[in-house]
Automatic annotation (TrEMBL):
Pfam families: MtN3_slv (PF03083). InterPro entries: SWEET, SWEET_rpt. The gene is SLC50A1. Keywords: Cell membrane, Golgi apparatus, Membrane, Repeat, Signal, Sugar transport, Transmembrane, Transmembrane helix, Transport. Residues 1-26 form the signal peptide. Residues 214-233 are annotated as: Disordered. It is a multi-pass membrane protein. GO terms for molecular function: glucoside transmembrane transporter activity; sugar transmembrane transporter activity. GO terms for cellular component: Golgi membrane; plasma membrane. This is Sugar transporter SWEET. The chain crosses the membrane at residues 65-88, 95-115, 127-146, 158-178, 184-203. Mediates sugar transport across membranes. The keyword Membrane applies.
Length: 233
């Protein structure tokens, strides 16, 4: 694939990632409308912010402007979600402690990668490995949704827009990593795309079975009740 193909794939990564990040705007709208954070979880915002910051650092170290642009937008939006959540939360102490814990982890990570690993190539390798493993760990949550779908025979716990955009973004980033021969980008995004594909497949199967046999439970008639997959790159 030539330079034009690479630019198109880079554009796809940007487009689908922005769509994935944008799904959090519904939570933002809900918080402003209800003046509360009821039924909205804080941890996905926090972990996604860490993930975006990690990949942003990797992008700067690698000199990849696609990574830099996408994750800079991600960091901005996730930080906005965190600030709004903190403003409307009735448990500000808990939110503040978790946020301070995040800052402490980031400072430790910065000190390790910049002070204890002076060699740039080694730093790039270790940071890439961390980003890849952290992303894979984050995307274990769709598997919980998959188990919930199977047990309840209902897809009401599934956020389809978020799952679809996550699948498209992860698949695009996997191809992007393969094209650049970057094992960390490719590996870190292949697992999330596979998880989302299985969740979407399970949702379609359950919906089809529901239509033919009349299984109990409304399908797609209620908002997600489980935490959705983290909004990240």
């Amino acid at each position: 694939m030539g330079p034009v193909g690479l630019q198109l794939l880079s554009g796809a990564c940007l487009l689908f990632s922005l769509g994935m990040f944008g799904t959090g705007l519904s939570d933002l709208k809900q918080m402003f409308a209800t003046q509360s954070v009821e039924n909205i979880q804080f941890l996905p915002f926090l972990t996604t912010d860490v993930n975006n910051l990690s990949w942003l650092s990797y992008g700067f170290l690698k000199g990849d402007w696609t990574l830099i642009l996408v994750n800079a937008v991600g960091v901005t939006l996730q930080t906005l979600y965190i600030l709004v959540y903190f403003y409307f939360s009735s448990e500000k102490r808990s939110v503040l402690l978790k946020t301070m814990g995040l800052l402490a982890v980031l400072l430790l990570g910065y000190g390790y990668f910049n002070l204890l690993v002076p060699d740039v190539s080694v730093r790039l390798t270790r940071l890439g490995l961390f980003c890849s493993l952290f992303t894979i760990t984050m995307y274990l949550s769709p598997l919980a949704d998959l188990a919930k779908i199977v047990r309840s025979r209902s897809t009401q716990c599934l956020s389809f827009p978020l799952t679809i955009t996550t699948f498209l973004a992860s698949a695009s980033w996997t191809l992007y990593g393969i094209l650049l021969q970057d094992v960390y980008i490719a590996t870190g995004c292949f697992f999330p795309s596979g998880c989302c594909a299985h969740v979407l497949a399970a949702g379609r199967v359950r919906t089809a079975v529901r239509g033919g046999r009349g299984l109990p439970g409304p399908l797609g008639s209620a908002p997600a009740t489980l935490s959705p997959p983290p909004r990240s790159r």
